[in-house]
Design a protein that fits this description.
The complex is a heterodimer. Chain A has six helices and six strands; from the N terminus they run H-H-H-H-E-H-E-E-H-E-E-E. Chain A is an alpha+beta fold. Chain A folds into two domains: 32 residues; 172 residues, no CATH class. Chain A has a four-stranded antiparallel beta sheet, with helices on one face. The N and C termini of chain A lie far apart (91 Å). By secondary structure, chain B is mainly α. The chains are: A alpha+beta, B mainly alpha. Chains A and B meet through helix 1 and helix 2 of A and helix 3, helix 4, helix 6, helix 7 and helix 8 of B.
């Protein structure tokens, strides 16, 4: 006959094992040693006084609680005060040299002869909406990309130190091609070394869409006076003879807007949009 | 402040805990008033529990003794900062757990020295004798090996999981009390407990009931 099946070996559950572990206890004599050690440490803690730096540390930490915010507030206040002062110094009005158009043309030609940079275009625009486009440094026959924002009475111009004079520019005819090297009498050439550098820089930074349109990174709104358009003339007509600050009428800060970084100056306030 | 005290008191699990917390509060006030000897009452009351927690976290009886002493010293030194927002034993457990965690982070590689004595009531469970026979070893030897094995399984858990399962299974704290000690949510405690049990189950599979 077959033997009867053996009863299964009793196996513990996890709770049994945890209960077994819970039962671990040190021997009673352990606690006597423990108490002795604890007493020694307790006495040492009572006798121990903070030494050196540790004595002053709590007071130092308490003082930091006020010193850090106060220093930060002072720094912020300094920056806030400094910005309007800097802006105000830039906004000092400079007398604009009023010269006949012929003199401006002569100055432009002289500048043109000196400048070795690529061509920039001052394109004629309707008197109600004067536009100067930032042209890429390409061959003279290449068309100039006109940004979409041109219709917003803004023009892309260098915001560096350029002198500004006024010149009469006739209204642009509808459909007129804005191209480099045009013989259109309304077109003016800018030969500002600073302006050229800025234009090149902006061109490098401009974003070319797949459609070929270029976006402008910065723009400057210029006033128009009775159909006559202010013309930026390079501050190179008589370089060195007159300080730039006396030759250039800086455009109003209100006119400047940085379209890409949302950086703007209005009067004495500076705004940055993120 | 009273509102916070009320909320914290409501976290205490049972009336026994409540009575315990009230009694501790009285002793703490005495210690604060300058009666240093009153602190001994707290040491006598909690030393075994604190030692048990620390031992199960470190699996080293020497380290456990030192760390338990350190925890009591820290509690003694900063008892004036005990605001009563939580019960004293929760505060003391937190000190002990934090002290042990700090020690474990500094000393990751330590050998384990198990306690070789168990309480009388758990000395001879039926399954232990059977397993010893099955293993062909004496019961005491097998029990010592089993403790070593359990300690190793505990040490395989992360510090946080080990702490949760120690406080819950060994020390018998509620989820809320563990959350207060470990400064985390009860959901986190439950999650860690579940994970730790699963890990232990998997590690001790050969010993457990199939």
């Amino acid at each position: 006959m077959g033997s009867a099946p053996q009863p299964p070996t009793p196996r513990p559950t996890l709770d049994d094992l945890l209960r077994f572990k819970r039962a671990e206890r040190p021997a009673p004599e352990f606690w006597a040693e423990f108490d002795r050690g604890l007493r020694q440490k307790q006495l040492a803690a009572l006798m121990k006084r903070p030494q050196g730096w540790a004595r002053f540390r709590p007071a130092f930490v308490r003082s930091l609680r006020w010193a850090v915010p106060a220093t930060a507030a002072a720094a912020v206040a300094l920056v806030v005060i400094q910005i309007p002062l800097t802006t105000a110094s830039r906004n000092n009005p400079v007398e604009v040299a009023s010269r006949p158009l012929g003199a401006e043309k002569a100055a432009l030609q002289a500048t043109s002869a000196v400048s070795s940079t690529s061509a920039e275009v001052v394109a004629a625009a309707p008197s109600s909406s004067p536009v100067v486009a930032l042209a890429p440094a390409v061959a003279p026959s290449a068309p100039v990309a006109v940004p979409d924002v041109a219709a917003s009475r803004e023009r892309s111009l260098p915001w560096s130190t350029v002198a500004m004079a006024e010149a009469e520019i006739p209204a642009r005819r509808p459909g007129e091609d804005l191209s480099v090297g045009t013989t259109e009498p309304a077109a003016r050439r800018l030969r500002s070394s600073w302006g050229s550098r800025f234009n090149e820089m902006v061109q490098d930074l401009s974003i070319e869409e797949t459609t070929g349109r270029s976006f402008q990174l910065a723009s400057l709104a210029l006033p128009t006076v009775n159909g006559s358009e202010p013309l930026y003339v390079a501050a190179t007509t008589t370089p060195g003879s007159t300080p730039v600050s006396s030759r250039a009428r800086r455009s109003s800060d209100r006119d400047f807007r940085d379209l890409e970084s949302r950086f703007g100056v209005t009067g004495s306030s500076l705004s940055i949009k993120f | 402040m009273e509102f916070i005290k009320t909320i914290s008191r409501s976290l205490v699990a049972s009336p026994e805990r409540q009575a315990e917390a009230d009694a501790d509060g009285v002793v703490v006030q005495e210690v604060r008033a300058g009666n240093v000897a009153a602190f001994d009452q707290l040491v006598l009351k909690y030393r075994e529990r604190i030692y048990s927690i620390v031992y199960n976290l470190t699996s080293n009886r020497e380290d456990a003794a030192d760390l338990t002493q350190d925890a009591f010293i820290k509690a003694f030194q900063s008892i004036n900062r005990f605001g009563g927002q939580s019960s004293f034993f929760t505060w003391l457990y937190r000190i002990a757990v934090n002290t042990t965690h700090s020690h474990l982070r500094k000393n990751r590689l330590r050998t384990f020295f198990s306690i070789e004595q168990a309480s009388e009531e758990e000395k001879s469970p039926e399954w232990l004798a059977q397993l010893a026979v099955e293993a062909g070893a004496e019961k005491e030897v097998f029990a010592r090996d089993l403790r070593q094995r359990l300690n190793e399984a505990f040490q395989k858990l992360s510090i946080k999981h080990r702490t949760v399962i120690t406080l819950f299974e060994i020390e018998g704290l509620s989820h809320g009390e563990i959350a207060e000690v470990m400064e985390c949510s009860e959901g986190t405690v439950r999650s860690r407990l579940h994970y730790a049990k699963n890990q232990l189950q998997a590690d001790l599979q050969d010993l457990l009931k199939r």
